[in-house]
Amino acid sequence: MATFAYIARDMKGIKVTGTLDAGSQREATAQLSARSLFPVEVKATDTQSVLASFAKRTHRVKGQTMATFYAQLASLLRSGVPMIRAITVLSQQSGDATLSEVLTEIKGRVEDGEPLGQAMARYPRVFSDMGVNMTKAGAEGGFLEDALDRVGTFTELQEDLKGRTISALAYPVFLFTIGSVVITILLVFFVPKFDTLFDRLREKGQMPWVTDALLAFSRFLQSYGWIAIVVAAALFFMFRYRLQSEAGKEWADRVKLRIPVLGSILMNLAVARFCRVLGTLLSNGVPILKSLEISRTATGNRLLSRSISDASENIRSGDTLASPLRASGHFPLTVVEMISVAEESNSLDTVLPAIADNLEKRTFRRLDLFVRLLEPVMLLVMAILVMMVVLALLVPVIRSSTAI
Asked: Is the pLDDT of residue 195 over 50?
């Protein structure tokens, strides 16, 4: 079975492109004809290169758009609409060009007999690991509609959290930006005018070291500021490229968990997502090992995902789930204890969603408090920096006027 890339026209003469799996070029042409498509070009190509090429020319789809897609697909399937028809309808009514193109590709693959989850996995820039794995589990376990509905709910909650965080941080970021611009203008255009006024104090050795350092830094910005900007931009892009590697992503996940206050908030949210997905899968009858394999992708953190993977290995050897989670040190002790009690009473499927609800409520309260405290802290930092610049210039002026 090989992969063929094709260019064809439909009954209305509209150009259609995509890929399909077939035993030969003649079979691929026959499949296109069966779809009422007129082949223009059909050629064998390497599957990996096709996926890489498609990944390069596709853009990420907004989370809210994906949440709506999952919910609508679940609703159509639950109403008795066939899979192919449901995907076709969503492809036609989608306002996102990328999602529409991807759904057209997926429809063709599903028509060829490829499972929906496997077809979705070919487009990692559009469908998340959690969405793909939940879809596969739902198709295998006979609860596809519920699985898609859950993915839509999770995606919407995640987008809601992201929106709340961005809106809450908007004002502190605005303050930081305005403060940085003001201080930069002072250092580049205002401070250098005082340099010649302090020559006499400098000759007498009465120049405060703070003022001397401020003037030196101002001269550096005037002479080499553009070099500093170029170096900073180069370091930014190098850092960004580094974060795209697997080692860089793991390092970033480790750093996130170590940030004071914010690290524990991110960890609790990741644990809450894990508990909610795991509880949902277990309540739908998915085996514990399969559920752990799927739910670990929902954490969004590689360290937590590895800890859950280690827990899966322990469960295979007859151990409990709570023991390896406690040993990892990444899960709150209260959560581990509740999981331990739930295992003893065989009620993980009902306890885990409750754990997620309580953990999210507490974490949202901490996040709101953190953001509220961040605003006055930013104001205080900006005020201190401006005050330091002003005092560094006023002290020599006062000394000069006193001497006169």
From this structure: yes
CA–CA dist 233, 240 (Å, integer): 10
Q: How far apart are CA 154 and CA 310, in angstroms?
A: 25
CA-to-CA distance for 148 and 145, rounded, in angstroms? 5
Where among 10, 38, 57 does a domain terminate? Answer: 57
Distances (CA, A) of 183 to 170, 174, 187, 251, 384: 20, 14, 6, 33, 11
Strands (E), 61-145: none
pLDDT digits (tens, 9 = 90+) for 101-154: 888 888 888 887 788 888 888 888 888 877 888 888 788 777 888 888 888 887
Looking at residue 88, which CATH number applies to its domain? 1.20.81.30
Which pLDDT belongs to residue 401?
63
Distances (CA, A) of 265 to 171, 249, 253, 372: 20, 19, 13, 15
Count CB atoms within 10 A of the CB of residue 276.
24
Contact 211, 395 (CB under 8 A): yes
pTM tops 0.90, yes or no: no
Which residue in 161, 134, 136, 159 sits closest to 149, CA to CA? 134
Do 234 and 285 fall within a single domain? yes
Residue 34: give the domain boundaries.
2-57
Rg value, the chain, Cα: 29
Average pLDDT of span 208-236: 83
